[in-house]
Design a protein that fits this description.
53% of the residues lie in helices and 11% in strands. A hairpin with a 4-residue loop joins strand 4 and strand 5. Helix 13 crosses helix 19, helix 15 runs antiparallel to helix 16 and helix 18 packs across helix 22. It is built from 23 helices and eleven strands. It has four domains: 150 residues, Beta Polymerase, domain 2 (2-Layer Sandwich); 90 residues, cca-adding enzyme, domain 2, CATH 1.10.3090; 115 residues, Orthogonal Bundle (cca-adding enzyme, domain 2), CATH 1.10.3090; 45 residues, no CATH class.
């Protein structure tokens, strides 16, 4: 069996090798066994640094985690229902999970689980490249367990499922396969692709929340556009939500979003807005209901509905700077950027660029207290004056505090 001690020590944060050795030693003393599993093992073998450490424990993970945390006064968060615990070290965290076996009673359902061995634990995973483990017990520290030849598939750059019913058991693995394919630059193994295509209807058995989770993870990928486009070409998106269609310009639109983002916007939000822009109102509302989208995503959809209803107004030529500001100020910046890209309107693109780069940062110097000191009575009229001041600043009618004060006195008279 291959020993990965040196690989392990070079691929994880400097304090973790000692932490892992301690976990293995304590597990050994308790008559248990500890293993590093999943993506961390895969990334180590690919020569990548990894910070997300998942440990599988043949024994009682929560009890072991508590013992480790107590030794160092680490913080710990336990999930008794799932037999898992997270230990928080000085700068990182590590998840400890009780090794378990799974059984799927029907396609798309969450599995029933029970404690098991490391072999059981590896057998329940999605792809061979994620089904490896490194032994942490002192007598076998660093030894690789690779029952499904995951390292071989890493070497030849293949995404391969463990068994023919894998996609039926958990259809979310269909989207996961595409994500790994693009992220790692691998190919999906031929039989795996055949089974993926033949099990698309199983996506309809998965809850909206779980499908949304997969879509959200996809939007966070560096190659989000190519993943979504391929999902559309394979018919995956239509099985997730039938009205969902893909604009052929999506890849170039996502690239534009990356280039135009000044760092102040969350790209996955922009990506979602671009994806949603071609949808009609009813389709967007249906999407919100189907996927039970979280608040931030629902906000994106609702804001798109509002801005699309204003397009005839906000795409007119020769709008003043204050008109641009008033039309755009209440919309999410991510939605503005997405709309300027997806609407393919030069006027709107110019307005959005001007608003995001300049207009949103321009404000009148005087405030409500200043107006009171100048004799204004607080109320609706004061708000009207402040708005006039802001517009005058935007349009260059006033350029200093003194000119603002002169304008206020004229308005008060």
């Amino acid at each position: 069996m291959k020993n990965l001690t040196s690989c392990l020590e070079n691929s994880i944060p400097s304090q973790f090798p000692d932490f892992l050795r301690e976990v293995g030693q304590v597990a050994h003393e308790r008559g248990e066994a500890a293993y590093l599993v999943g993506g961390a093992v895969r990334d180590m073998l690919l020569g990548k640094e990894t910070h997300d450490l998942d440990l599988s424990i043949e024994g009682k993970a929560i009890s072991l985690a508590r013992q480790i945390a107590k030794n160092h006064n680490y913080k710990i968060k336990c999930h008794n229902r799932f037999g898992t615990a997270t230990v928080y070290t000085e700068n990182h965290h590590c998840d400890l999970v009780t090794a378990r076996s799974e059984m799927y009673r029907k396609p798309g359902a969450l599995p029933s689980v029970q404690p098991g061995t490391i072999k059981d634990d590896l057998a329940r995973r999605d792809f061979t490249i994620n089904s490896m483990a490194i032994n942490l017990n002192p007598d076998s520290f660093g030894t690789l367990l690779d029952p499904y030849r995951g390292q071989h598939d890493l070497d030849i750059k293949l995404i391969r499922i463990l068994h023919p019913k894998s996609f039926r058991d958990d259809p979310t693995r269909i989207m996961r396969a595409l994500r790994y394919q693009k992220r790692l630059g691998f190919e999906i193994e031929a039989q795996t692709m055949k089974l993926l295509r033949s099990n698309l209807e199983c996506l309809g058995t998965v809850t909206g929340e779980r499908l949304w989770h997969e879509l959200e993870l996809t939007l966070n990928e560096q190659h989000a556009a190519t993943i979504i486009i391929e999902a559309g070409e394979l018919g995956i998106l239509q099985h997730i939500y039938e009205p969902l269609s893909i604009d052929s310009r999506l890849a170039s639109q996502y690239e534009q979003a990356r280039q135009l983002n000044d760092g102040s916007m969350v790209l996955p939000k922009v990506y979602l807005a671009i994806l949603a822009f071609p949808m009609g109102t009813q389709i967007m509302e249906g999407f919100i209901v189907r996927f039970k989208t979280p608040g931030w995503a629902t906000g994106i959809f609702r804001d798109i509905m509002k801005i699309k209803s204003k397009l005839p107004l906000i795409t007119k030529p020769n709008l003043s700077r204050s008109q641009i500001y008033r039309n755009l100020e209440k919309h999410l910046h991510e939605v503005l950027l997405a709309t300027s890209i997806a609407s393919d309107c030069n006027n709107l693109r110019r307005y959005v660029d001007l608003y995001l780069s300049q207009l949103r940062h321009i404000h009148a110097e005087l405030n409500g207290n200043d107006l009171q000191n100048m004799g204004a009575v607080m109320g609706r009229k004061t708000g009207h004056i402040l708005k006039k001041l802001q517009d005058a600043r935007l349009d260059g009618v006033v350029r200093s505090r003194q000119e603002e004060e002169e304008m206020v006195y004229r308005l008060l008279q």
